[in-house]
Amino acid sequence: MSSLIVSLPLEPATGATEWAYALTPDGRTLGDHGHVPAALLPLPRGAGAEIVAVVPAQAMGWHRVTLPKGMQPGTPRLRAALEGVLEEELLDETEAVHLALQPGAKAGEPAWVATCDRAWLRHALQLLENAGRPVTRIVPEFAPEGASALVVLGDPQQAWVVASGEQGVLALPLTNAAAALLPALPEDAPRLAEPAVAALAEQMLQHKFSLQQAPQRWLQAARTRWDLAQFEFASSSRTRAFKKLSTGWGDVLRSPSWRPARWAAALVIGINLAGLNAWAWKERASLEDKRDIVQQTLRETFPQVRVVVDAPVQMEREVSLLRQQAGVASARDLDALLGALATVLPAGRTPSALDYTAGELRARGLALSAEDVRRVATQLKGLGYSAAASGDVLVVTAEGSL
């Protein structure tokens, strides 16, 4: 699944802002990355392609809450319930803050709520959409999940240290005072730093740090289950369903882990196609046999027919000729049609005009109601005829009679 991952700038973005981005061809490996204006951001391609916005750790706040019982995620009153729970904890007015609940949260259980400036987020997303890069998912750069880790990022003039794990996310400027506020981490906990601040991190925190580029960190963030596009930032239900479907299909079509399943599906499809072809061949052969039998019957019954074009039609024509020669009436003859119609018409109803053409009788001026037509058609059907009204005309024909 190809993805464009865009890191949102901390300062309010403008038309001249250069956006930091990373491009991944499959959601797992890092491709191109850099800084370009919004209109020059590369577009992801292929099935399940998406654009993911990453909210920097410095712009996020995290709060641990317990959802009220009976309040399920996705309900219209959820936003109001979260505002009520967090009202005393938020530094800004609740209307100015965007809230997002952690995935899998359940009523009556503790859950993490992510917060950020609503106007800042809306402005950044609008600029990307105006540039033809609409965001399909929003993720935090760091989330309170997984094993504890320490990451130093930025540049020597503005370095930040972020501690993350199941206990929460803490982002502080890298200073001696901040170092004292960091939680104690296990000795083997990952400690990562961007190349520009790696030496500074080791000097101030007195520990060995492994190098990690910012795009690698954004790629990890994009692979989490988090999606901050909730409440007013949520996509329509149809768009979100399509996004999940296309994302799932993208994984199925491209992921190496799905290769055995793809081979199995291809094998099943191949076997079914072979079976369908065999069944079609058998049905075609059966149909040919039946056609040969009908043609043979026509030749044996009417030897004078030398060329068979349409056996049933030719057989009907020959039978009609025999009737005419023997003086036997056919159900399609005028007198037979008139006799059948006369037996079923309501008393006192006689047609004002009659037309007969090739086994079809048209009776005009009967003035039959819809109920009368239904009753006449039912009775004629029992006699082997069909009837239908066409305006003021009743059309009578023989059903399958030779």
Automatic annotation (TrEMBL):
Residues 46-233 form the GspL cytoplasmic actin-ATPase-like domain. InterPro entries: ATPase_NBD (IPR043129), GspL_cyto_dom (IPR024230), T2SS_protein-GspL (IPR007812). Gene3D superfamilies: 3.30.420.380. This is General secretion pathway protein GspL. The lineage of its organism: Bacteria, Pseudomonadati, Pseudomonadota, Betaproteobacteria, Burkholderiales.
